[in-house]
């Protein structure tokens, strides 16, 4: 039940404006092994958390110093096929390959049936050539679509599906975005983290119930908040990514430690895009 809110503005007209503002929650079983965000790869240029589940692996969200960014959410369904490929590889492969996001997403669309249902966002941030972002949902259109400048919300359904929690979070996100140029970067990050940790249930939501069916019904109350808290499962990481008009990237991750909702670690990374 991960959730992502983002504003894509490839050519901001204002000085000190942002080309990308992204705020995301990773929801997962508390005991599923993972590593907090850090740089990895042969050249130490890929920044993400890592899923350490045996036979799965990959990541849910990451960015590189070359300006490649990708984020994944699973599509809510009553059951999943454990014999299919791990979806975390979809993000990791994009971050580690040289393919542009259009070419990569074309391949992903052709092989989408090899995975349980998912949503994938990829982007190339290039100060010289311009920024592009694509979305593909394996339960939606047969091909990926380029995203126009704007504000988007993505949960465990197709992009901007009007789940109540998505609409609620997008409204809060938009309010913060409207003030972003008046806020110091550190305050903007804190305001976005506050949204991601909102535990107000947006209930009832017939759309979630209809999609999740018997899987979701016993725990529907827990899943209708932006910050999910269910027995043994919930929001384990908050991630904020900012890319400003000069190509400066700010990456903040707040991640749960020791499967304990009272123990958290916050990591901050900053770097300049390498083109």
Can you walk through the features of this model?
This is Transport and Golgi organization protein 2 homolog. The protein has helices at residues 88-96, 101-111, 164-178, 185-196, 206-216, 220-223; strands spanning 3-8, 18-29, 34-40, 46-51, 61-64, 68-74, 118-124, 132-137, 145-146, 150-154, 229-230, 233-244, 248-257, 260-272. With 275 residues, the protein is of the alpha+beta class. It has one domain: Penicillin V Acylase, Chain A (4-Layer Sandwich). The strands form 2 sheets. Strands 1, 2, 10, 11, 12, 13 and 14 form a 7-stranded antiparallel beta sheet that branches. The protein has a 7-stranded antiparallel beta sheet with strand order 3-4-5-6-7-8-9, with helices on one face. Strand 5 (61-64) and strand 6 (68-74) form a beta hairpin. The chain starts with a strand and ends with a strand.
C-alpha end-to-end distance: 35 Å
Taking pLDDT < 50 over at least 5 consecutive residues as the criterion, the unreliable ranges are none
Number of strands: 14
CATH topology: Penicillin V Acylase, Chain A
The overall pLDDT average reads 93
Order of helices and strands: EEEEEEHHEEEEHHHHEEEE
Question: How much helicity do the residues have?
Answer: 10-25%
Strand percentage lies at 35-45%
For the biggest sheet, the summary is:
7 strands, antiparallel
Radius of gyration: 17 Å
CATH class, named Alpha Beta
Count of separate structural domains: 1
Within CATH, the superfamily carries the name Penicillin V Acylase, Chain A
SS class? alpha+beta
The CATH architecture designation is: 4-Layer Sandwich
Shape: globular
> Helix count, per DSSP?
6
